Structure prediction request, 719 residues.
Amino acid sequence: MSKEFTFEIDGRLVKAVQGDTIMQAADAAGVYIPRLCDTEGLEPQGSCRVCVVKQNGRSVSACTQPAIADSKVENETEEIQGYRRNLVRMLYHEGNHLCPICEASGRCELQAMGYRLGITQATKYPYLQPVRPVDASHPDIVLDTNRCIFCGRCIRASRDIDGKHVFEYVGRGIHKRVGVNGDRLAQTNVELTDRAIDLATCPVGCIIQKGKGFFAPIGQRQFDHKPISLGVAAVDPEEAE
Amino acid sequence: MAKTRVIEIDPLTRVEGHGKVTIHLDDHNNVDEARLHIVEFRGFERFILGRLYWEVPVIVQRLCGICPVSHHLAASKAMDSIVGVDRLTPTAEKLRRLMHYGQILQSNVLHFFHLSSPDLLFGFESDVAKRNIFGVIEAHPELAVKGIKLRKFGQEVIKLTAGKKIHGTSAVPGGVNKNLSTAERDYLLQDIAQMRGWAQEAVDIARGYTLEHMETVRGFAAFNSSHMSLVREDGAMDLYHGVLRAIDASGNVIFDQVDYREFNDYLMEEVRSWSYMKFPFIKRRGNLDGWYRVGPLSRMNTAGFIDTPLADEAHVEFRASTNNQPNHMSLAYHWARMIEVLHCVEKIDELLNDPDLQGDELLLKGERREEGIGVIEAPRGTLFHHYRVDENDQVSFCNLIVSTTNNNEAMNRAVTQVAKAHLSNRKSITEGMLNQVEVAVRAYDPCLSCATHALGQMPLDVELYDAQGELLERKLRS
Prediction:
């Protein structure tokens, strides 16, 4: 029988079962820990670092670090929110995130995270303005890596759920980007029904389904009235209707 | 060698976008030539290439913060063609029309009350410290409030139809993404009677000014030209959709009943080295004689009638003021603009009472095409959007002929004529004299940002050069 124990998140007592990550225990208790690379149904990888918390004073990613009995976890403290703000700001500066003209606007987790963390204006970081290709070769799907934040959700979904390995990282360092298993998307076996293509999988507007852009009116989009939090994540606009 | 001087008005004020005027004087201080320069560049036609066709209506509207709806709708009309839709559902077309009438209403009101009324109320050479919207608020508070509230009403219409007052997203290829709820309808209807009354007052003010100052109006930037606009097939003024009609200075038809998708057979654009704004002309008349005007004045001249009663009555009176001949007076743009405001209020009223706006059939889809052309009557005139989309759904070609661009030659002529009349043989140039030049440009309500598809700033610039092209004097305002 799994051993149950408790620990604290920002002073609140939270229950956990042996083997739970901090995030699993927090989710079960209704405590939101901000995240971008982690989403329901995918194996956590702890790469975006937005979910980093302090466990007994040590920085760890909440999505991969097991909860420890009687530990004290700092989540939405001023210090940690500051780190998250800087991480998210750097994501904006690293890619080409033009929210006003992006069809993911209003359902984009990066944008919603920016709002949640109070990022309302440009920052001191330089915009890298990378030149990345748009792959619109597939009849139903577009890959616009200008908007990619390297969360790897599409890679894990294609590999672990769809069993296809359509997406993978290519290149190194600053030249790293999401590539496809073929010269172009049209040459892969990706399909609209794949979990990797589900609009809830890509947290931004990197993977989009053709002909669905701007179908959700302003005011009825996922994050128009509610901040990103537990149970309020990106969903397919058609499913939301 | 003879010397000329050049006056530079830089920046032009109370216009949308950044421009400057240069006025060339000869040895005897006579105006030799005057030019309106548009000095911004943004390159929308270039960076839209490669983007996906359904993004276009949202991207290109960023050309402008004053008339984004016009670009949003013109691009949407082009994209309707791309997705093979020639006729929208009644709900979709009426929602778009409602949005468009809100747009013309707010933009025309903004121009008349906020930008031009200081010239008309206080005089072209009046005290510059008061010749602005704040002066109007101080001297005519009731009028200023009406102007502000009329514009607000237009913006509310846009917000409820497009999703936001500026840069909404509701028009999508093949239709719209929302209808108008009964609550939204009722919210707008509660103010409609008040708006109609104020629009009628605005027409009265503009007509009164024109008729009372007819001598000035006749002699100020008035010159013969051709005029062009969309009209409904039966000749009624139609701001959203129709066929192209052009008339010459005497009112004779140059072309009529032209499907706007064939506009390239009728119009061309000329590039001149000193301006980022091109010079369109009617092909068959050539680049020297083929220039024309667009916008409210032209629409009054090309339309046979207006299909709303109060605006039609005003249109009849407008036409009668020139014995039913084309009106060529630049300052008459203001009167025409206010007649359109009244028409828009009437149309909004008509649409709000139409149950089609609560319909659920929002989108259609047809057979995919490679080319799409959308044309609309924007506040400042006829607006052309032309795109080609490749087999991957990416834009491969884009050409925009923006309303203000159509008036490029006319604005240059207006500037030259007014400069010759007011700046020749003067020992010194005053701010008031330069404002006369600006009044001429301002009559066209130019959106210089749109015209060059350029970043929006407001200033205007006047420069004075000598015969050797040396800059002698420059007035810069922001």
